[in-house]
């Protein structure tokens, strides 16, 4: 049996460092939000001939359209602007025709700021409902609030790591907070709880079999018996997500990267955050 809990303060120090860096990134740099959250218009055109980016910017400015982001790749251009209607978009396309030799519209989507704000509210409500549901389920299933509280605190740990990491991705790689990011966060949180339940179920089994004894011993024994299984399970997922992150398309790259971070931190937090917290809470109860 390996004494994993011997290094609990090292685990907490690692977690505090990672979370601290993420929170600093959120505080100083924040996020790049997609139009799903802040409202705006995405325009994607394909030109017949090559066009200079400065020429496009001048034409857009003349239309009194505020550009939030613009990128030109070959003959394809992607613009993100403040919300515009179909009439304004048609005028812009017509003004680009002489310079571009022809404009093929590929995408035109607009989300108003009210809908964006509504999306943010629904996202927050969905997250809170998920956490509350997990708290209730684990309290009922394990017949002990300490088990549920430990799992939720580990869940909060994973959430902070993921959102902090995404702020760094947003700052240095241009990742945007969109509905795919929300999906990835909620998926990563569920994976974390799944791993935690496996360990806690072992601890509960020992408590039933041997009675209220040395909780440290039960926890270390549970971790020793489940660690290889958890690592094998997680590594298969990590290798797949790593491949998709490196080789997948740009549309899903940051979604997969978020899942990858969530899987790694979920694998780490179940034995090294949730379990030490449970042991500490159980000792305090005594």
Task: Give a short synopsis of this structure.
The protein has helices at 8-28, 35-38, 53-62, 86-100, 113-142, 145-173, 179-210, 215-247, 250-285, and strands spanning 32-33, 40-47, 67-73, 76-81, 103-111, 176-177.
Class of secondary structure makeup: alpha+beta
Mean pLDDT across residues: 87
- Number of discrete helical segments: 9
Assembly category:
single chain
For the biggest sheet, the summary is:
4 strands, antiparallel
Strand content: 5-15%
Account of the protein in words:
This protein is an alpha+beta fold. The protein has two domains: 4-35 and 115-285, Multidrug efflux transporter AcrB transmembrane fold (Up-down Bundle); 40-111, ACT domain (Alpha-Beta Plaits). It has nine helices and six strands, in the order H-E-H-E-H-E-E-H-E-H-H-E-H-H-H. The strands form two sheets. The protein has a four-stranded antiparallel beta sheet with strand order 3-4-2-5. It has a two-stranded parallel ribbon with strand order 1-6. Helix 1 (8-28) packs across helix 6 and helix 7 runs antiparallel to helix 8. The radius of gyration is 24 Å and the shape is elongated. The two termini are 25 Å apart. The mean pLDDT is 87.
């Amino acid at each position: 049996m390996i004494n994993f809990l011997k290094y609990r303060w090292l685990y907490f120090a690692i977690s505090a460092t990672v979370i601290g860096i993420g929170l600093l990134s959120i505080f100083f740099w924040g996020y790049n939000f997609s139009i799903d959250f802040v409202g705006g218009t995405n325009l994607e055109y394909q030109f017949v001939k090559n066009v200079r980016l400065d020429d496009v910017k001048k034409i857009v400015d003349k239309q009194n359209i505020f550009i939030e982001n613009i990128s030109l790749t070959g003959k394809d251009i992607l613009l993100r602007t403040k919300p515009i209607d179909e009439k304004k978009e048609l005028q812009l396309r017509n003004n680009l025709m002489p310079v571009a030799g022809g404009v093929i519209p590929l995408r035109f989507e607009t989300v108003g700021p009210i809908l964006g704000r509504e999306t943010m509210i629904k996202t927050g409500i969905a997250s809170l409902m998920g956490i509350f549901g997990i708290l209730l389920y684990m309290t009922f299933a394990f017949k002990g609030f300490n088990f549920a509280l430990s799992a939720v605190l580990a869940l909060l740990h994973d959430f902070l790591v993921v959102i902090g990491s995404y702020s760094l991705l947003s700052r240095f790689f241009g990742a945007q907070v969109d509905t795919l990011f929300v999906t990835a966060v909620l998926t990563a949180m569920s994976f974390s709880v799944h791993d935690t339940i496996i360990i806690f179920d072992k601890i509960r089994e020992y408590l039933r079999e041997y009675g209220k004894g040395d909780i440290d011993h039960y926890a270390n024994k549970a971790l020793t018996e489940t660690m290889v299984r958890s690592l094998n399970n997680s590594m298969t997922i990590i290798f797949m997500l790593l491949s998709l992150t490196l080789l997948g398309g740009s549309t899903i790259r940051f979604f997969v990267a978020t899942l990858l971070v969530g899987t790694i931190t979920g694998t780490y937090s179940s034995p090294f955050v949730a379990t030490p917290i449970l042991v500490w809470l159980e000792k305090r109860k005594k």
